[in-house]
Design a protein that fits this description.
This protein is α/β, with parallel strands linked by helices. Helices cover 26% and strands 18% of the residues.
Length: 261
Amino acid sequence: MAVTTILLPFHQDERIGRDSITLPAGIPTTEVAPQLDVVETQWQRLAALYNHLADEVATRLDSPEPTTVVTGDCLALLGTLAGTQRAGLSPSLVWFDAHGDVHTVASSTSGYLGGMALRMAVGGDPDLLTRPLGMATLPEAQAVLVDARDLDPAEKEYLAQAAVTHTSVDTMDAALLPGSGPVILHVDLDVIDASEIPGLRFPAPNGPTSGSVIDALRRLLDSGRVAVLDIACPWYDPRDEDELRRRAALLARVLELRASN
């Protein structure tokens, strides 16, 4: 029986359009889309949203196939991580992304919350989301950042001294998986060269091809250690049928990897 895919149709605390993320036909899907209280702060709304996601993830980690989560941005990974921990697992984290996502609130020049997601997972700004979610942050050595070619000066400075492993798509394989236990495999689809994906919020040129990324994901899934496949679709709502079709085809290729493992 096919594993249910968890869909969180949000970019941070804003609901995205129904056509923004198109899953392949026939895939069982559970949508997590609670009503958020508009009078709360953004951080409170995010904590409430990711708490719902965490509860859903925690109930799905009983399959031989990786539990799959599809969301509109990287920050939702904190809900996925919290849910994995609620299920009694102590995962490591592999993070495919064109960007570092290792800012803190203090170091970010843009204030974009998605650029802080990986740093929060390994201990940055714990009062904002990780503590409200009851989440244990990961030691830096349990995180691998793959690609991240578009880095701000503060991110370069952090990665130069952090225990986070920073490697390329072509060299990433099972030998670089940290630890010996379960892994959350997080894939921000903007890791793929921007020429292949229309309408990205933060397009980054000079990236790997979709084929190279999918080959790397297959190598990791073949290890048998991936407990959760967490996919971020950081694009604007589609402007036309061509954008919708191209994105849907890419997402289908990534999701098909589960069936071959």
